[in-house]
Amino acid sequence: MQSANPSWSDVDDYIAEHLIGEDMALDACLAGNSDAGLPPIDVSIAQGRMLELLVRANRAQNILEIGTLGGFSAICLARGLGDSGKLLTLELEPGYAAVARRNIDNAGQGDRVEILVGEAASTLLGLLEKGGVPFDLVFVDADKDNYATYLDYALKLSRPGALLIFDNVVREGRVVDPQSEDPKVPGTRKLYEMLKNHPKLDATAIQTVGAKKWDGFLMAVVREE
Ligand code: DHB
Ligand code: MG
To answer: Fewest CB atoms within 10 A around its CB: which of 87, 93, 154, 225?
Structure first.
C-alpha cells in the first residue's frame, strides 16, 4: 500500500510482495489458525522466509522446533530442508498440534515433519536419554519462562556448528528493564545471562520491526573447537 507515512507493516507488505509473493499454503495456515482460535503470534511472512533461508544456507538436515503453535514456522523451516531432511516440532497443546498437523500436511510438508505433544522439557529429556541424531538447527518459540532450560537442551542435543535461534528476545525493548511488568521478560533475560561469556556458544541478537512490531531473534552457534 502506498503511504506518505509508511508503517512497519506497510514495509513488510512491500517485502513480501517483491521477495516472496503469494503463498497459498501459508495463507491457508493462518486462516486455519484463526478459525481454530489460535493466537496470532506466528512469525511474520518475511521472518518465516528468513528461517527457510537459514535452513538452506546451513544445509540443515535435522531441525528441532520448540513451540509449534499452528505450524506456520514449521512449514517455513521444513521448506528449507533437502529431500532427506527432518523436522521435529514440540507442542504443549494437543489442540494446537492437531491444527498444525492439518496445516503442515496441507502445505505438502507432512512427510518430513513429526509433532510431539507434551511439555517440551520432558520430551527433550526423553530425546536426550534416547541419544538420537544430533540436530543442526534449533528454533525456540515457546514459553519464555523456560528459555534457559531450552538452551541447555538445545546445546546438549546439537552438533558442533549448529545454529540455535530464539524468537521474541526484545519484547518492544522491555528486555532491558529488570523491573519490567511483562511476565515474559525474566525468562528472556535469563537466556541472555546464560549466553554472557558462554564457553561453547557465540551469540548475537538482532532487533526486528514489522508486522510483528518491535521484537527480535537471538542466534547462537555451537563452537566447533
Ligand atoms: C507471544 C509469543 C510469541 O512467540 C510471539 O512471537 C509473540 C507473542 C506471546 O506469548 O504473547
Ligand atoms: Mg514467537
So the answer is: 225
